[in-house]
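note to self — DONT lose this again. spent like an hour looking for the file last time. sequence + predicted structure for the chain T wanted, 109 res
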Amino acid sequence: MTSKPKTLKPLPSPPANAITPVTLPVAAAIKALHAGEASSHQQQIALAWIVREAAGKAHFPYHDNDRDTVFSLGRLFVAEQIVGLFNADLSSLRRADHDAPTSTRAPTT
């Protein structure tokens, strides 16, 4: 008597526009980051949650319908922008900012 092999089923994806769960340490880290008072550990916690959870880097972006897929890809685009800055060559950005016409420069704070 042979049994049928079990097939794996994918985990159901949460809706694309579902509110991302937040733990107390994450909320405290985000608040401290916003106030400019976050420790280095809180900064890492906050950015990890922003990139992985809020911006969707930790989740597969494709859903059963186009609307949810597009929404998830929009969130993922934000994550990719932030992660790209983690490894950015600041010297080339400084040169590009220095060479840019003054009307296109970002305001300095």
